Amino acid sequence: MAGSTTTRRALLGGHPVAHVPATDRLARLLGLELLAAFTYDHILNSSVLPADMRQTLAPVPTHERAHAAALDAALRARGAGDRAPRGPADVAAANRDLRRRKVRGRLGQLQGTPDALDTLAALERVIVGAYYVTLLDLDDGSLIALAMQIMASDAQHQAIVAELIDPDDIPDAVPYGLDAGVQ
Amino acid sequence: MVGERRASRRALLKDAGAGLAAAGAFGLLGCGRSAPATAGTGGTSSTPIVPSDVSILAAALELERRTVAAYVAAIPLLDHDNAPMGRTFLEEELEQTGELIVLIRMAGGKASPRANSYAIGRARDQPQALALLHGFERLQIASYLQWVPRLSTASTRAAVASVMAADAQHIAVLRATSGEPALASAFVTGED
Hints:
By secondary structure, chain A is mostly helical. Chain A is built from eight helices and no strands.
């Protein structure tokens, strides 16, 4: 157990959580949710996943858009509606965003079901990590509750994607702090 | 085949749960910025945890212990395919009780000893056992949503929120195991 603590301390040292205004945090999360919705839409509308997996994941893009709408409303309520990102306009923009967030898969170039599921799993891991980091920096009670509800939903998505992945192909879970720097 | 798929799911969920547990650990270590404390639910991730959090964390610990007791009672009722899932989730709930005990100590409190028994209701077969577990996971989520915003430091809030996210994963799998849609809602509130 001491070893794991050492590892956590090392990770913490490399990824301090800087204070960012709540509206900036909301805008970042909104950008992630829009990227997630675009990514799920693209993958579920392609033939890269078999029909039974597409059916299992069918509710997810709707969830991601609902998350985005709630975050957008929270931004507007704080007078920062003009800060809301629009989400990827096309596949190339989505791929740039995925690369920036260190998600390996590229839409339009996914090499089969494992590649698509790994991409979704990596993206969900980044999203949950982003909410965790946001919670380290939020003071507003209503935003805290909203972030918790969405973080839990995205954690469920992560669990269901994990269920669909062959265990031989799944990498070890990465502590979310590692993903925090690319939110 | 079904058994293999369930075994895979359990292995993968264990990985996912480990990630959430690690996220909680980050909070326990006090990761974060240094900034002035604010009123209301405010606080910072680097300020010490305050004693007023102890009562909330103690209530959370008791609820986690009841949930642990529910898993202990329910696992013998689960079939060969589902019992390992129950054991994995039991391990995670036990880890969560440990995390809450640490938080209570950091707040200057002392965790109460475990009770000799907990009122958890009764289940006689697998469907009732799954329903019992689902009920406790829902109760935990609804409770955490009430409690977490009242905690005074951001690091503690994030740590406990990561516990709630792990419980949400449990619910998704329990729902699927019960033949219900795993993803019930875009917002996890503990209502379903």
